[in-house]
């Protein structure tokens, strides 16, 4: 089977969209599928490879991608020349999200999409904005033959916006539980830490990294307790200036090497993701797979993933609940270990990358057969 895949490659900042594209397409190829990968910018993929189609684009504030004027033509010609059986778009991909179904259908190719948009069901400003974005996209999601989402709550929300239930397929993000697994690490010795708290992700306003750093300082743990912030983003420089004088808080920047990220997560005692809005965090799932006690806000699909396997805090009281949760886990190491083992078990049961890729492949076959 030949799949036209519209995805993302590494840019200035790492994020879950890039990881999703890399892991899913690699898994498809391991399973014997021929993947034609369309992407904007970046130099990670070999431009000489006939299976990697690089399209010109304008990147607006590293948030919105405007594809070049000739992108629709290139896509259509490639779909026909390469005789693609099915297409798959990781949304949001670019402003072509709105016309990709028509381009593919005109070429006789069914198309599925994965909807990564963060959301929050709570009546907050961010929650209301996220639901507005969903309503905008609901007007075109019906053109896609299938829409992959991450939770039943997402399904209910989209159904209430008029998307046919039979178009929605719940296939959560998955992680490689063999790579991301508990194991030895020397990272604590490297940074002279006895206990390690970690954030991994984009350092952008909605991630509330500043709130995490503030809360950590309010608790004022001893010198052996360290907070490591892995990633970069719009707030990275200002947070470095604000908290850089505290030797207990370490900013690493982006770490693209998977082995290094695994080493950090294996050394981590508490993983914290205090976002105001999320989809389903791959970084959180990676930490859970490594057996790390996890605290995250109950937004998007994260609360559903953590239920009974971690601590989900109310996004309307992040400061107060984060302080209590972090203080509890710092005080009671046995409780941390219990939550860590439950988190690992949850990933094995529900968020296995290999199992979820097989479900994606089954979906492709169904679309190809006209299902």
Task: Write structural notes for this entry.
This protein has a 7-stranded parallel beta sheet, with helices on both faces. A 6-stranded parallel beta sheet has the order 12-11-10-13-14-15, sandwiched between helices. The two termini are 16 Å apart. Helix content is 42%, strand content 19%. The chain is built from 14 helices and 15 strands. The protein folds into 2 domains: 2-174 and 352-368, Rossmann fold (3-Layer(aba) Sandwich), CATH 3.40.50; 187-350, Rossmann fold (3-Layer(aba) Sandwich), CATH 3.40.50. The chain is an alpha/beta fold.
List keywords for this structure.
alpha/beta; Rossmann fold; 7-stranded parallel beta sheet; 42% helix
């Amino acid at each position: 089977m030949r799949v036209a895949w519209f995805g993302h490659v590494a840019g200035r900042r790492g994020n879950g969209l890039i990881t999703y594209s890399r892991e899913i397409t690699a898994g498809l190829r391991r399973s014997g599928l021929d993947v034609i990968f369309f992407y904007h910018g970046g130099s990670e993929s070999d431009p000489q490879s006939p299976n990697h189609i690089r399209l010109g684009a304008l990147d607006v504030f590293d948030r919105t991608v405007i594809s070049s004027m000739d992108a629709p033509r290139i896509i259509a010609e490639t779909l026909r020349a390469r005789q693609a059986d099915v297409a798959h778009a990781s949304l949001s991909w670019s402003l072509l999200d709105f016309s990709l179904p028509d381009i593919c259908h005109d070429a006789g190719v069914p198309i599925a999409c994965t909807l990564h948009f963060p959301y929050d069901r709570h009546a907050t400003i961010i929650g209301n904005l996220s639901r507005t974005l969903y309503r905008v996209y609901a007007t075109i999601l019906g053109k896609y033959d299938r829409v992959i989402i991450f939770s039943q709550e997402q399904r209910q929300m989209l159904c209430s916006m008029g998307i046919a239930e039979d178009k929605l397929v719940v296939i959560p993000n998955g992680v490689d539980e063999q790579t991301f697994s508990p194991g030895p690490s020397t990272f604590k010795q490297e940074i002279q830490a006895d206990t390690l708290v970690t954030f991994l992700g984009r350092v952008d306003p909605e991630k509330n990294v500043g709130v995490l750093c503030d809360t950590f300082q309010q608790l004022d743990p001893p010198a052996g307790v360290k907070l490591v912030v892995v990633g970069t983003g719009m707030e990275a420089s200002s947070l470095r200036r604000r908290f850089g004088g505290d030797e207990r808080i370490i900013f690493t920047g982006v770490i693209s090497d998977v082995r290094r990220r695994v080493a950090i997560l294996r050394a981590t005692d508490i993983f914290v993701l205090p976002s105001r809005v999320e989809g389903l965090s791959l970084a959180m799932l990676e930490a859970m797979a490594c057996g790390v006690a996890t605290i995250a806000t109950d937004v998007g699909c994260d609360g559903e993933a953590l239920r009974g396997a971690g601590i989900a805090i109310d996004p309307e009281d992040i400061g107060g609940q984060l302080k209590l949760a972090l203080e509890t886990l710092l005080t009671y190491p046995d409780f941390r270990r219990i939550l860590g083992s439950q988190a690992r078990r949850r990933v094995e049961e529900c968020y296995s990358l290999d199992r979820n890729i097989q479900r994606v492949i089954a979906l492709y076959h169904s679309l190809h057969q006209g299902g």
